[in-house]
Amino acid sequence: MRKTLMTSCLTAASLALMFFSQSLSAYTQDQQTYLDASRALDNKQYAKYRTLRSKLNGYPLAVYLDYNATMADIIKLPGKQAAKDIEAFAGTPLYNSARYRYLLTAGKAKRWGDFLAVAPERPNDVRLQCFYQLANYHQGNKTAAFEATQALWLYGKSRPAECDPLFALWSKAGHRSQGMIWSRLLLSFNAGQYGLVNYLAQKITRHKAEAKLLVSVYKDPNSLRHTQRFSNNATIYGDIVDAGLRKLALSNINQAIKLYKKYHKAHRFGAEQDASLNHFLVRRALIFKVEKQRNHIDTMLPKLKSDELFGMRMRWAIGEKDDATVEKYLAQLSPKGKADPRWQYWQIRITGKTNPNLAQSQASTLSQERNFYGFYAAQSLNAPLSMNDAGLVFSDELKTKLNQDSGLARVTELLAIKRPHDARTEWIYLLRRHDNQTKAEYGLLALENGWYNFSVEASIQGEQWNALNLRFPLAAQKSFEKASKHFGVNIDEIRAISRRESAFHRFATSGVGARGMMQLMPATAKETARKYRLLYNKPNDLYRADNNIMLGSAYYSQILKQFNGNRVLATAAYNAGPHRVKRWLADSKGQLDVMSFIETIPYTETREYVQAVLSYRMIYQQSHSPDAGMFTPYERNFAY
């Protein structure tokens, strides 16, 4: 089972409460009673809590109070009774949270019968999986437990401590073979886990010398240059060389390819292993456009037959204005690759040099698509953009059924009492219970209520790619208008950035710590606030929509000025940083047109980001400026 983020629910100290204050009179009587009950429970005023709770029978959020009030007792119950009590939370995010807490507690206490009573099927969480197999083992189902343990153990990184007792039983029973140890040794080698590599090498008995050799290659992969040490025909030596060359390629791709050629000539690898290693090395050389390996790459690519690698090679050629090479690899793409709008566009450019009429016909076909290349093709032909909008509207029949899911009432109440995190979780769970058509109806309802990030979420989960009203709502209109006017930036540009960054989820947080609707790093926000005298005291201020949009717009306006109003460069810089964009410009030396520059942005994330933001802007401006270009004359004519 998946561990829910909601480990404690709706306490008075929840994150969202820090950002809102509301007079008591703004809440309904039930809402205020709920908040008072929640506060009483937090303060352990149990008599007061029970009195307040008795007034909330039938209130949608009462289940949250019951969760907080009873979970401490539920986790102590026998399994069958606990399963029954946990069932009371079914249909809410609390259900998985309750199961997780119970199972983790039962597993740690070695209450195996209780564990299986609540989880008769294998959970998703790794810690719980280990407890599940331990429970099976202790309940007499040893064979099945040990069969599943192998898959858990064969992993390139360390497993949670909860798995150690299971692994010890499995190993003691003789199921941890030398072959398995060697397989995990290779997995950990490729995962860069030296501690685990060293530990596992000490467990090798049948190939102790080879394990020692593998550890030495980990420490110094360039030792593979001593080819005689690895000349044994045994497969295990091929494994060592394969792993070592992959590690060597991270620091010295030229040496790795040089040695690969020697070992390949000596038939060191099996066919499948050879192809996989060759692909890895060629890809690595393409990432860094290693000039010394150009001939090797061009020799290998037809054999590898990979659209990904063909694309990387074409971007290298585009950066060098080498049309012949682009044309060569366009022809080698798979049918699926050739159908990609990206490569359709580049085929049109190639075709246009020798057959303008055919190129125009191809461009007309591409212009019917709603994407970056389709929009560019349409504007090149002076044709209107094809929005391909489904024009999604309510189905009277389905709309009347939306309230039948009690999750909608919980979402509504959670938003009313300013619990947006919990409301979003409920919304996601609600959508998962329905088919795509009904998800679209919920998206329309979200749009009607101004729940804009919920409408986007519904479009994604419901695969409503042509429902532009759901996908591109006019979220936070007043905040965007204010920021646009204050900093003199186009409202559709900053709105498009926010749509790409967070899908208008103001509590969005990236893995590296960027926060809010326009995904600002706290350090960037602090410096921007200082420079423009904007409100910012702490990172959590970035979860305020108005603050975030003002700071994000200020930062965007700053980098827009830095790049003389060039939105292509400013958008790339917003994602990757101005220093990287300046480096890319230095590398291209003013030799590229705008489409070539975008195509050759080294980072896939940034390349797709720029294309998405430009496309989203085009979609947003259709309602009021349908003739506005994707690029200004300055951007189009700039020497990148």
Question: Quick gist of this model?
Answer:
By secondary structure, the chain is mainly α. The protein contains 37 helices and no strands.
Outline the fold blueprint.
Elements lengths: L28 H14 L3 H8 L8 H13 L4 H8 L7 H15 L3 H7 L7 H13 L3 H12 L10 H9 L5 H13 L3 H8 L6 H12 L15 H15 L3 H13 L5 H17 L6 H11 L2 H13 L3 H8 L4 H5 L1 H12 L3 H11 L5 H9 L15 H4 L6 H11 L3 H13 L3 H14 L2 H10 L6 H4 L5 H11 L3 H12 L19 H11 L12 H18 L4 H10 L1 H11 L5 H6 L4 H18 L11 H5 L3
Detailed description of the structure:
The chain has 640 residues and is an all-alpha fold. The longest helix has 18 residues, at 545-562. The model is unreliable at 1-24 (pLDDT under 50). The protein starts with 28 loop residues before the first helix and ends with a helix. 63% of the residues lie in helices and 0% in strands. The relative contact order is 0.05.
- Kindly name the structural category: mainly alpha
The biggest beta sheet reads: none
DSSP E strands, number: 0
Separation of termini? 50 Å
Keywords:
640 residues, mainly alpha, 37 helices, 63% helix, flat
